[in-house]
Amino acid sequence: MISKATLTEELKNFPEHFTINELLEHLILVEKLKRKDKKVFNKNDIPIAEVDREIERWFKY
Fold first, then answer.
1. What are the sequence ranges of the domains in the chain?
2. For residues 31 and 61, which has the higher predicted lDDT (pLDDT)?
């Protein structure tokens, strides 16, 4: 779940005009990265190969 503070901060970095799809894709990516950071912070080891595969999958269209 994304917080209002995160949403507000991310919107500050967006251009004046953008599509809702661009915003949603960006917010999904931010949320996924936060989840990964949380797992790493909690000492849940994630093999770097798995992280690379997942990031590559996120950027495929």
1. 4-58
2. 31
Structure tokens that stand for 50 in this block: 């798995």
List, as own/partner pairs, every contact residues 11-15 make where C-beta atoms lie below 8 angstroms and the sequence separation is at least 24, other chains included.
none
Write down how long the chain is. Answer: 61
Dihedral of the alpha carbons of 31, 37, 41, 46, in degrees to the nearest 10: 120
Retrieve residue 34's tokens: 């936060």
Residue with the bigger pLDDT between 58 and 60: it is 58
Would you say residue 44 has pLDDT above 80? no
Instruction: List all residues 6 or more positions away from 1 whose beta carbon is below 8 Å from its beta carbon.
Output: 31
20-41 and 48-58 helices, crossing angle to 10°? 170
* Phi then psi dihedrals of residue 21, to 5 deg: -65, -40
| Predicted pLDDT at 49 | 86
